[in-house]
Design brief:
It is found in: Cell membrane; Membrane. The protein is mostly helical. The chain has eleven helices and no strands.
């Protein structure tokens, strides 16, 4: 198994995976607690449009995915003021916009590049430049999350109470929306657009089953994400398939194992 680490592309993939396994559940735990898990799936599709724009202009798809996904994330927050009673309409609107842009550009023939590597994930196409981009965005996100941690936690559990406490809830929500966009965009190269939301939600769902405190759930979600991604990458290498599928299946399998183990312990 150690032979995989002798390959440069696998080392790049594992380093990117390490960053993603920290970032995605760190953002995902707040999304899950805010009941916004489907926002991750919507923004994953938004990143598809960003990738398509990047490929059309011959620029870094990850950077353009980050820009477009962040814009869509902010737009979701903005539209909440206009659809207060019909908030379930917001995600289909953003989804329609994103998919429309993505399909239009990819079907026009102007998007030059391997779009499938972004849809399903790839361990072969992670280059040093991608790794540096993922590293920079991850560091910025983690630092921002650390700075806003207390206020974000307050807003997550009691938004009305946060307003009374003079916390700028709108500002926190907008910043968090950008962080979600960043975490999605840095993950698509490895995990793939179609299943990237699984790394945002499933490790958190697994950690929640342990019934621990918030901080312990936070830590366990990162541990589960790391296990899911590493095992998924190794399986994808030996099975010669896209890592997105194996990572998604591994994450669900780990969740099922925890649920079954929990059931047996109770009985």
């Amino acid at each position: 198994m150690l032979e995989v680490f002798h390959l440069s592309f696998m080392r790049n993939a594992f380093m990117a995976a390490l960053l993603i396994s920290i970032l995605c559940p760190s953002i995902g735990i707040f999304l899950v607690l805010k009941r916004y898990a489907m926002v991750g799936d919507t923004l994953a599709h938004a990143s598809f449009a960003g990738v398509a724009i990047g490929l059309v202009f011959g620029q870094s798809p990850i950077i353009y995915a980050f820009i477009f996904t962040s814009i869509c994330a902010v737009l979701i927050e903005f539209l909440k003021n206009y659809y207060k009673q019909y908030s379930d309409l917001i995600l289909p609107i953003i989804l329609t916009l994103s998919v429309g842009v993505a399909i239009t550009l990819t079907s026009s023939g102007k998007a030059h590049g391997n779009i499938e590597s972004f849809l399903f994930g790839s361990i072969l196409t992670v280059e040093k430049t991608d790794l540096y981009t993922i590293l920079i965005l991850s560091i910025v996100c983690v630092i921002t999350l650390k700075i806003l941690y207390e206020k974000l936690l307050y807003v997550t559990f009691d938004e009305e109470g946060a307003k009374i406490a003079n916390i700028n809830v709108k500002f926190i929500n907008y910043i968090f929306a950008i962080l979600v966009g960043a975490s999605i965009s840095v993950s698509i190269r490895i995990i793939g657009i179609l299943v990237v939301s699984s790394m945002v939600a499933v490790p958190v769902a697994t950690a929640i089953q342990l019934n621990k405190s918030f901080k312990k759930t936070f830590i366990y979600s990162i541990i589960f994400a790391l296990v899911d991604i590493i095992l998924g990458l190794i399986l994808s290498y030996y099975l010669n398939c896209a890592p997105g599928g194996t990572i998604a299946l591994t994450s669900v399998l780990v969740l099922i194992i925890i649920i079954i183990s929990k059931t047996f312990i109770r009985n």
